[in-house]
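tool_call: predict_structure(chain=1)
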Amino acid sequence: MEVDYNFAVFELVFRLFCGVLFIYQGYDKLFVVGVKNVIETFSADASRQHVPKVFVVFSSYFSSIVEFFGGALLILGLFKPIVLTLLGIDMIMVAIAFSTIQAIWDTKNVFPRLMLIGILMVTPSRWEFFSLQNLINYFINK
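tool_result:
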């Protein structure tokens, strides 16, 4: 298979950029702020909106874990379709959470991540030349 390096570099840059954003976002929630503090931050607003605490707890853990490990897997170039699907679900959960708390909220941090996920979802797998998954597939099919 012939590789068009311009497209391969395009995919690499977008994947690395997206991965870095998510890994640091998840890292902050898991190791700096702490998931319990994230839960506390959203619990008051969620309870005023009659959102069950179980949803706040689940979404806080889901979001933190998916963002951290999803970002790491994107950087490595592993399981991209699954990771992007989980990150897409994460973005939907974030949109629901913020929309429940405040109907009109600033999307300046969420929308770019959503666009990066969307762009990576539609890039053809043949552009994933610079990825660990491509290297593994090369040796499996050799």
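agent: The two ends are 13 Å apart (CA to CA). Proceeding to next step.
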